[in-house]
What we know:
- By secondary structure, this protein is an alpha/beta fold.
- The chain has two domains: 5-261 and 464-481, Aldehyde Dehydrogenase, Chain A, domain 1, CATH 3.40.605; 265-452, Aldehyde Dehydrogenase, Chain A, domain 2 (3-Layer(aba) Sandwich).
- The chain has 15 helices and 24 strands.
- The strands form seven sheets. A seven-stranded mixed sheet has the order 14-17-18-13-12-20-21, with helices on both faces.
- Helix 7 (191-202) links the parallel strand 8 and strand 9.
- The termini are far apart.
- Nicotinamide-adenine-dinucleotide binds at residues 157-162, 166, 184, 186-187, 218-219, 222, 237-239, 242, 245-246, 260-263, 294, 391, 419, 459, 464.
- Nicotinamide-adenine-dinucleotide binds next to helix 8 and helix 9.
Amino acid sequence: MTITVEQTLLARVPEALLIGGRWRPAAGGETLLVRDPATGAVLKEIASASVEDGRAALDAACDAFEDWASTPARVRSDILRRAFDLLMERKEDFALLMSLEMGKPLAEARGEVAYGGEFLRWFSEEAVRVAGRYGASPEGHGRMIVTQHPVGPCYLITPWNFPLAMATRKIAPALAAGCTVVIKPAELTPLTTLLLSRLLEDAGLPPGVLNVITTSRSGAVSEPIIRDPRLRKLSFTGSTPVGVRLLEQAAGGVLRTSMELGGNAPFVVFEDADLDKAVDGAMAAKFRNIGQACTAANRFIVHSAVVDEFTRRVTARVAELRVGRGADQGVEIGPLIDERAVDKAASLVADAVSRGASLRTGGHAIHGPGTFFEPTVVADVPPGSDILREEIFGPVLAIVPFDTEDQAVAIANDTDYGLVSYVYTESLTRGQRMIERLATGMMGLNMGVVSNAAAPFGGWKRSGLGREGGAEGIHEYLQTKYTLTPDPFV
Ligand code: NAD
């Protein structure tokens, strides 16, 4: 029975590229295979775009731009709102599809549909609230008019870990602002974006406004698009090294860029924290999405007065986590995305243990089929361990003790990244100090999850440029024009 539901769903996912309103195979007939990371089984064979297809997709976005930019904001808003309603109707399809291609537990996949859907609703509301300014020049000799305009055709590149939310977080503000787009999902999880594109067509999006290219040759297909002078905006979510390379490619055209890159989030537990809340927050901040989130807590920095108790309590919780295929009932930890991710988790744990860290639970790969890793706790991680410097991207919770507030801040800020931090304290003034002292674009103060469509999501330092969501999100896709006119009374 379950198999039939899954097969029926997979059969409804388009297997072609969407270019200029037409679903079509890749020009050279190339395809790529999408696999279930829990079993290694092939889920679907889909088109793999060539350089030529990439150019055709950009042609289509450029052709559609003028009409879409001049479409009334209310019409654009209504399409996004219909897309939100359709997504809520089709919630179970999207949750199951994400669980199949990415591996996340079904309950979390449902949470991602709710979160990802909010970007469609939020930006349907923001589309009609783009404001300008009108006022007298300070000298009184003229009138100054400030207006906002869609930036132009955009190229959106998304990662595999949140297949729906990373797509809606870019598509919704771009369309709301009046931009047309080419989107390239990750080759590991392209099915959700294909199904979402069909949904946007059903919501009434005109041909050419959204174009989709799936490909196994991301670099070769993307570079000519990014270097094309007609492209005006690049929005990327993914790893920092790839983001840096794309920024270099974007420099020639002085492209507007948004970069949502890697993280190395500190999770600081002070001696005055409510430990029940801190342990709950730790489980959410660490194990959501199998630890494969840019916002995942990477380093647990815990005061020496409570570190033993905190470690004991989280270890008990972690040891009980149910591991399995995400689409199966009751599973809390699915597979990692691929073999490389398993090897990385294993080597980070081995490095920490070889330097003297103590392994409290887990620590090893689980034999296949599928790419699973045991939920793990390592305590007393010594300074200099790789696990404190690198993004773990797996279900491994690493604990470092500290004694003073200054020490906690120094350890927390000792990273090139600055996406998010988590702080647990019952002291209001200490919480306020942390807001000012921790160098991250976002903070959870006694909260283990911060993502919200109404908030500006983004990082400091090597975690990125720009913000997605909130009142800020639409401005990533708008450009400002200032006009001076004479004083109308002279
Ligand atoms: P990745 O950088 O390997 O890939 C991201 C996307 O870029 C994929 O679509 C991939 O196909 C594409 N890509 C890879 N090489 C490319 C190239 N040379 N040219 C053009 N496109 C290319 O990252 P990933 O493994 O898919 O995702 C995990 C990373 O994403 C982690 O570092 C994570 O922290 C980060 N992430 C950040 C956020 C955020 O909002 N800051 C959100 C989710 C994930």
